[in-house]
Predict the 3D structure of the following.
Amino acid sequence: MRVNHFLAPPRFTRFFCYPDSFGHYFDDPTHKENREAGQLDSYNWHIVRGGRGYLEMGGEIVELQAGSGFLYGPGVKQCYYADTEEPWDIRWVHFNGAGIKELLQGKGESEAWTFSWKNAERLDVLWGKLLTCGVPSLQGGEARLSALLYEMLAELALNAGDTLGAPSHGQRSELIEAAEWIRTHSEQPLTLEQMANQAGCSISHFSRQFHSLIGKTPIEFLTECRIVHAKALLVSTELSVKNVADQVGFSSSAYFIQRFRRSEKITPEQFRRLRRG
């Protein structure tokens, strides 16, 4: 069974992203796509909900099952197909827009990006909403469709992991719990060893996987949490900069000012005056 929706270009041409087609294929053992490089000038994104299928990538055949997916950037050669005995249940969307490359950090630009969305189950809910939208109405429908697609892409960028070298589903949960623990204890003099212990892994493994999942090192994340806390104290209290630095966990006010200025481009006192009007 194949469900297809095709859309005209939006009247407002500066949406961050907008689909030109989307659909849902299932119980179709004949499904196969083979596109030469340059043939499709939009992003092509699929999630696999059941069954199995295959993707040709780098001269190898990659098997994809429920909880996985793939993304091609514009112009990339594509070859993928359903298993004939147990055809996949997939949802797909073709789309374009400015800023997508930065949002997805270049994934899919030179070859297919395969990923796991087992820690991003909300994607399937959002995809269901997309399918029920169908052809948008002219009265606000295009804006809602663009916003929905952006939410889907943000969910993918934040929570989907590479199928190779990324944290497993269980490990992702442990890393997220460790990140929350760091946030709630950021005023304490935390060490990298203490942070790694929260995730139950070695310092080197923790640092590598934390950066892969969160997008920054544990120390960078800790500093960010302290600066966020400092902002609230600067605006809502009369504490001196030195006392703010002490309360949020910085070892000295000079280092606090240095890191705050690097992050916000202004000093803590300038931030206080600016936000208090």
Summary: Residues 141-159 form the longest helix (19 residues). The longest strand covers residues 18-25.
